[in-house]
Amino acid sequence: MVPEGATVALPITPIITTARMSVSSMSNALQSFWNNRANEIAPGCPELEMDKFHRIKIRPLLDAVDKLRGILKNEPIKLPSIVVVGDQSSGKSSVLEALSGVNLPRGQNITTRCPLILRLVHLTTTEEEQKQNRTPIPYAVIGTTSQNEVKISIEDADKKIEELTTKIAGRGVGVCPIAINLSVYRPNCPDLTLVDLPGITRNPIGDQPKDIYQQIKEMIYTYILPEESVILNVMPATVDFPTCECMMMSKEVDPNGERTIAVVTKVDLAEKGIRKKLEYGITSLNLRLGVVAVRNRSQDDNDRGLSFEQARQNEIRFFQTHPELGSMSEKYLGTHKLAELLTAVQEARIRGTMPKVRTSILDLLESNRKQLMEFPTALRTPTEHRIKYDQMLNQYIQSVSSLCRGDHSMAKGRQALHVAPRLY
Fold this sequence. Notes:
The protein is α/β, with parallel strands linked by helices. About 45% of the residues lie in helices and about 10% in strands.
């Protein structure tokens, strides 16, 4: 039994411990980042410069955010993230595959049925590997929590995602809000953390739930509503950009376009006039962070075993030789430009929101400490248990006696106890 008015806060202790650890980890990572910012890159081999750039400038920030994401996943604190949104079959999977170099589940129906937190980690080359002219071996880690994550090969990523999706969301075609975490470690990979959400589908097909559209919309709004989120809208070149549903959703939560990026896919399927359409989209959408057009692997390319490097080279040649897009500014074209843009936006977003996140964590920590202070002192011996029992029993007797005398001071506003019996 707990005395009346006491606050039960047993789960608070681990929260305080983890929150304190997260604040310390974040502070250390950020301090390291700022201390090393002045000498980020030294002259020399371009590959080594890029490794040092990622290791010093980007990686500490992402590590701090990823650690906080795991620790505070059940707390109301929102962390900066890049959320990928688009209609079903808009090309979301192809964009993520091109960025990560990993095959993801594909199909005609909904293939992304759970949020996929895709963490891309740039593997740096060690001194020993440099001497032996070797590159790091890519690998991936997958799971729903940090406790059940397992190391897998890059080639098995799509199968493992499907297995986890079936385990979490069932064998049907419904969606589930429980996220799958996939960390991809490979060289020549941008340091990014992306959240892929189920594609928007308006009409249920087959065994899909009748409210599948509403379920997906609610899930998307959950991720794009926080101001810390950057919205990555994926739209095929064949649709009208301003009236595309994902764009209209992002406009609701980001009317000024300050945290929205548009990615235009399937430009090779667009009719004549694609350049004017892109230019009109860039101006009419008024997206402060930019618009990028990409040409990724098709399903036929995937079936033929076209590698990601070959697809990247094909994409570069496509834009260079395209009769309309060949003379367009390079900053709007290609997966490599998209990766550069996302890396820069992510860094700026993290640096801009981290002070607010740190303040929120400290406020939560202080609130939990106050709750912990209100919790009764731990009872360690039988004598202490007996004394506490007598105190609680006496308090109960006093409460009943007061009510019987018509003294409502101990009723604490509960109308059901506002009676005035008298004992004679």
